[in-house]
């Protein structure tokens, strides 16, 4: 497994890049909000940024605690989308390590949750919100007792 440790950042390649990265949303992104609105409209109730059992430094984007379903809305750049992910040219070696570590952390988080009985749903930021909501709703309903 790839390590989730990354060496210290070498510094931004420009002031503009530094500004852009410093204001990038870490939570409550547009795609997360769209998905949450659809889930709420469908009558689903959930927790936001819920600590991962067994590793409280990590959080679940959308958690259905009773059904034990964890939903992650992964950004194409940060999580290495095979369709839209890009590799920066500036500080390329560092970014390659960073993005690989993010993917290793994602896999570790999924394995950790599954080991304690959670079901994990991962969607990409570019996925259709209606389709993503349907996947989540189906996963939650499949884990709820009948009746």
From TrEMBL:
Protein name: T/G mismatch-specific endonuclease
SUPFAM superfamilies listed in its UniProt record: Restriction endonuclease-like (SSF52980)
BP GO annotations: mismatch repair
Family: Belongs to the Vsr family.
InterPro entries: DNA_mismatch_endonuc_vsr, Restrct_endonuc-II-like
Keyword entries, A-Z: DNA damage, DNA repair, Endonuclease, Hydrolase, Nuclease
NCBIfam families associated with the record: vsr
Phylogenetic lineage: Bacteria, Bacillati, Actinomycetota, Actinomycetes, Micrococcales
Organism: Georgenia soli
Superkingdom, taxonomy of origin: Bacteria
Region annotated Disordered, chain positions: 1-20
Gene Ontology molecular function, alphabetical: endonuclease activity; hydrolase activity
């Amino acid at each position: 497994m790839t390590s989730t440790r990354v060496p210290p950042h070498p510094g931004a390649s420009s002031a503009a890049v530094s500004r852009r990265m410093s204001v990038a949303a870490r939570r409550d992104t547009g795609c997360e909000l769209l998905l949450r609105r659809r889930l709420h409209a469908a009558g689903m109730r959930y927790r936001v940024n819920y600590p991962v059992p067994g590793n409280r430094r990590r959080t679940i984007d959308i958690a259905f605690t009773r059904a034990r379903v964890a939903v992650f809305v992964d950004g194409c750049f940060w999580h290495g989308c095979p369709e839209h992910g890009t590799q920066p040219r500036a500080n390329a070696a560092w970014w390659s390590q960073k993005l690989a570590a993010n993917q290793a952390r994602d896999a570790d988080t999924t394995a950790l949750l599954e080991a304690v009985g959670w079901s994990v749903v991962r969607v990409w930021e570019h996925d259709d919100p209606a389709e993503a909501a349907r996947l989540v709703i189906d996963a939650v309903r499949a884990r709820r007792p009948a009746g």
